[in-house]
Write a structure and sequence with these properties.
It is built from 19 helices and 17 strands. With 519 residues, the chain is of the alpha/beta class. The protein has a domain of 250 residues. An 11-stranded parallel beta sheet has the order 1-2-3-5-7-8-9-10-15-16-17. It has a two-stranded parallel sheet with strand order 4-6. Helix 3 runs antiparallel to helix 4. The radius of gyration is 27 Å and the shape is globular. 37% of the residues are buried. About 10% of the residues have low confidence.
Amino acid sequence: MNRWNNNPEEILTKKVSRMSNSSTFNILDLNNYILLEILGFLNATDLWLLSKTCGRLNDLIEKECFWRYIDARDSPNTVEKIEYCAQKCNQATRDVRICADGRHLVIISSTFFRYLNRASITILALENQKICGNDIQLKHFPENLMELSLKKTYITEINEFLTYYDHQLKKLKVLILDQCCWITSNILTNRIAYIYSLEILSLYKCKALNEVDMSIIKGFHELRIMDCRFSSLGNMFLKNLSKKPKIREIYFQHYLTTYFPEKHRRELEISSGSRRLKHSYIKDHDDIPLWNENVLRSYFGSNVNTNEMYNHCNSLFDRSTERYTHSNYIEDNYHFESVLYKRPYNECTCEYNSTTGLAVANVKSEINHDDRMDQYVCKDDILYTLDPACFTHELENANKSEKDIAIEELIDPSYCRRTRRRVQAWCGYAKVRKHMATSIREDEYFSNYNNVSLTKISLRGCNSITDATLQHLTHLHLLLLDVTGTNVTTEGLIKFAIDNVQCRIIHETMCTCLPTLHF
């Protein structure tokens, strides 16, 4: 009998049999080839935790193949873990994503980017954390960056943070600034607009933004997707977006009329078993209906006061789409798919399609209304802000908590720098024709026909939109149109649907699918 049996199958069979007969199983009994396969399914946080268990696993985890994609956003989010993951960056690393457990916590330092710059990082997410602009600036970021997410990140010393050299950010295509309360109209026009390569810009829930006249902006010529849902951008901003020929998708959604009801529905879905989206970073103080005194005082006490900021937050009117009437549609074969940005509309699940849309419209003539939703809707269409005098002692604290930052966001940074009268004048800008930035006469304004490639637009919750907007857009061959919560009529929708059979029309009487929220 041969004492040394080199048959690998027989050796493996005996080993498995021996392990099955044992009452305990040790993962270290596996050979390195199997362990490497198993480790390939783990994210950066799991690898970091596992590296602390024994030397053998730590040696395997050191291999560069595990650090091409670094997603370290799972808890625990500590400085030690972030430093460990940063040190693992190598020439093969392309994607790094980290976050903190709150936007009041600092977890990265200037040394973090020294490790990142050893690699060719193209995708970077620094989310839900505090970044000190005196220590970290955009000029420290990798030069080959194509996608950047600063979702719900709190920036101090903003002007210093936004410093970068001309040769940097030339490849940046995607910029996600969702829920960043420090983004103002001045930053949008004077800093972000000059990232000329930008194709996708997400300003979801950037509530410190106000109306912007893009006719005075030289940038955004490569912009394809603009997501400004639940911001204060509105009529004038959309009007000037129509001058950007390459833009394909525009997503507006009225904060006061639609956000809280849809947030309430989403919370009911989660309580019924639906899974919350990962890395949503939602907190109790993020969204408080300031017009509801009972809810407001339950969070901040009975002495809290509010101030009226301005009417028609995120308002859109028919006039904002009028320029599209004189536009020529051109087909743009744009195929870039972002890794970080997710479009708000998924595939339809309500059994609506364009060929049966008219029949569905007749069936859905009566819309169910939940009276409980009324408490979440601002009846007078006025945006409020917390009175800064009630919280001065908290806001002056350098070491702000999560609640302090939420209060600062609800107060609105623009309130401290501008009088209410000036803000009201700025946001009422589009209502009066003589206040328009351009002095071009009406006939001259529409005499310059422009090419557009618009395929998707959301005007959700903007109740000043009527059938006139449908007439402005009817010749553009749209693939998606959301006019839920507007004042368009069933007759107008039917006429639009006949002329645009390929278009997915989202409305109470047609497709009723909801856009995705952030949680």
